[in-house]
Amino acid sequence: MGQADRLKAADMRQLKNAYENRLTHIQKSAKIEITRLLEEIKTKERNIGQLRKDLLALQSPKKLRQNEAKVTATTKPKTNPNETSQKPKKPTTKAAGETKAKTEPDTDTDISEQNPIRQAQVTPEL
């Protein structure tokens, strides 16, 4: 009987070692597969993020144009069509017969005496 028990114990050790080796192999392959799948997920997430950025970049000009159109339509200052937003330009040369009297003050160049209403310029707000 001693011999049979030893053979049975040797068989059990052999099976145990085979199972442990198989378990170690399965764990290693599972770990490799998990790592590969995680890398694949990360790559796909990066691709999705880049595609979202590209989509936003493509949509942004349209949205910016729409927003600018809305802003300019709502904040456009109402002006009288007869008024101009720029001061009239002064003539650089005088006509042959055009001279000022010496007693008349020079109002074109004396800014301090001008009416402040004439000095104001209408500028559209952005």
Notes on the structure:
The protein is an all-alpha fold. The chain has a domain at about 1-75. It has two helices and no strands. The chain has helices at about 1-75, 115-120. The longest helix is centred in the first third of the chain and has 74 residues, at about 1-75. The model has no long low-confidence stretch (mean pLDDT about 75). Keywords: Coiled coil. This is GM26305.
Write the layout of secondary structure elements.
Elements: H1 2-75, H2 116-119
Q: What labels describe this entry?
A:
126 residues; mainly alpha; rod-shaped; GM26305; coiled coil
Q: What's the overall geometry?
A: rod-shaped
What is the percentage of strand-forming residues?
under 5%
Could you report the average pLDDT, rounded to the nearest whole number? 76
Spell the H/E element sequence. Answer: HH
- The portion of residues assigned to helices is 55-70%
Structural class: mainly alpha
The rounded distance between the terminal residues' Cα atoms is 104 Å
The biggest beta sheet, please? none
Q: Determine the number of helices (DSSP H or I, runs of at least 4 residues).
A: 2
**How many strands?**
0
